[in-house]
Specification:
The protein is α/β, with parallel strands linked by helices. The protein contains six helices and eleven strands. Strand 2 and strand 3 form a beta hairpin. Homodimer.
Length: 252
């Protein structure tokens, strides 16, 4: 009863093969491919995998990319299934004005965060931060209600916006430091500080609104860049979206 979880973001396709379609399942294999190279997955990364019995994915990169991924899944007798956010699922209540317009990856991450909190016996609110091409900062209360969230440009988008809108800022990527002394470091540190400030502000607001200590979970490929600047205690959970997909599949 192996299960394939797929997360198609704006830059990469991430996948994980689990030994069962349920929370707590063991990860057997995993990988990632840039969207430009996903047309080779059937002949490379997936070629030697045991055939999954089911799959569930979330895709935010558009229908064309999703169909390219489905073509690669044809190596197995497998029906592609994709997450569509609903008003309520797996103990999470979707507070978006139009629930189905919430990003599928954000919805899966919220469900993963809720499952993680319940597994530890914790009924605390949580702030879920995904750091990728874009950065999302989403909040749920202790009862699993999605209160809302922010969408911000990620590191790369910030740097490209500055390069396009100003003169003389086409410089190599710098480092995140407290007091930058060159333009490269100033650009990277400024973007990181802006993101960290948004996260810390939302964390404070969540604590104020709920009156409880809030979990802070971070995920995404660029989370390690941002983590040193965020001061509230946090946990990096690389598999958060996959954990949500496992919960959704188990319920179905």
């Amino acid at each position: 009863m192996t299960f394939l979880a797929i997360d198609i973001g704006n830059t990469r396709l991430k996948w994980g093969l689990y030994d069962a379609p349920q929370p707590g399942a063991t990860l057997l294999a995993h990988g990632a491919a840039f969207l430009e190279t996903i047309d080779t997955l059937a002949d490379t990364d997936w070629k030697a995998l045991p055939a999954p019995t089911a799959m569930l994915g979330c895709a935010v990169a558009g229908d064309v990319v999703r169909r390219r991924a489905e073509e690669q899944l044809e190596i197995w007798d497998l029906e592609p299934r994709w997450v569509v956010p609903t008003a309520q699922d797996c103990g999470v209540i979707n507070g978006y004005e139009h629930p189905n317009r919430l990003g599928a990856d954000r919805w899966a991450a919220l469900i993963g965060a809720r499952q993680r909190a319940l597994a530890t016996g914790s009924r605390r609110p949580a702030l879920i931060v995904m750091v990728g091409t874009a950065v999302t900062v989403d909040a749920i209360d202790a009862d699993g209600r999605f209160l809302g969230g922010l969408i911000l440009p990620g590191f790369g988008l910030m740097l490209r916006a500055l390069e396009m809108g100003t003169a003389g800022l086409k410089v190599p990527t710098g480092d995140v430091v407290d007091f930058p002394k060159n333009t490269s470091d100033a650009l990277m540190s400024g973007g990181a500080a802006a993101l960290a400030g948004a996260i810390e502000r939302q964390h404070r607001r969540l604590v104020q609104v709920t009156g409880a200590s809030a979990l802070l979970l971070m995920t995404g490929g660029a989370a390690v860049k941002l983590a040193p600047l965020v001061h509230p205690p946090f946990e990096i959970v690389d598999s958060l979206i996959f954990e949500g997909l496992l919960a959704l599949q188990a319920q179905r």
